[in-house]
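tool_call: predict_structure(chain=1)
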Amino acid sequence: MEIVRGIEILDLCLHFDNTLVIGDVHLGYEEALRNRGLLVPDRMYEQIIMRLKIVCICCPGQ
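tool_result:
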């Protein structure tokens, strides 16, 4: 979805000028919580990686 001319939102990213901007995905956060003794499921990392792979497929050759 184009939000401003030349800038579009692709799931977790902004895409413009052959650049993907990825922010605030907290990679490693679940592991850091587990290292502090908190019991949290480890499914978010895999979901984020899958979503980023889909975004990369939507922007082939970039």
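agent: The first helix runs from residue 29 to 35. Proceeding to next step.
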